[in-house]
Amino acid sequence: MHHNFAGHQTLEMDKNLVSDFHASATKTDLSKTSSTTWFNTKYNDCMKLYADVDTVAKHFASHRSWFYQCAHPMKVEPLGENGYDLSIGKFGSFGYQIEARVGLELVPPDSAGIYKIRDIPVPNYTPPGYQINFQSEMKLLELPTEQFFSHKEIQNLGLPPVITGAKWDLDLTVGVKFPQFIQKMSPSLIQKTGDKLLLKVVQQVSRCLSNKTQIDFHTTHNLPFPKHKN
User: Fold this and answer.
1) Within a domain: 72
2) Which residue, 69, 78, 170, 191, could crosslink 43 as a Cys pair with Cβ 3.0–4.6 Å?
3) Is the overall model pTM greater than 0.85, yes or no?
């Protein structure tokens, strides 16, 4: 069940973000570019799922059944046993943009229960003018529901006795080879703008993906999902 990207509706869930990062689509010659500018962001979040750890772990293990629709509007293709080729969209500033595409592998949990996501090469594809280093770790934590809800709320909403928190941390680094007209600008301005852009993209994509994953999980398992407490 694959989904196609609809032109510039890359991150259609946030029109303001798209307009903020709108840039010229003119092709740029990078042959004279000699250096790479690096941008980094660290991000963490916790996704709550109203079920026990075993149920959540089994659902995550069958990611082929839900990842495609939850990643929409990103274009997704399978890559190996646990990998995906993701076309994230076009982003840029200062009249220059790149079309972000990355291969990611959802590594099964190790003996300590740590899930990892790492970047992997996309066959027959060389990123035009950029590099991505994506390293993420996730841990499933089972917590008592009464830590978040009163006994009356638990009864009225039909909640289970435990909640699973999928706590994850991301370290993302992106290197961009800018054309000469960008390199002539203030390095500090380029750095500040790029880091800010990278963080906003990560926040938006992660929130959208997490929300869709939560909805799909609770719908699939016919479980209550009290959004107002999430």
Assistant:
1) yes
2) 170
3) no
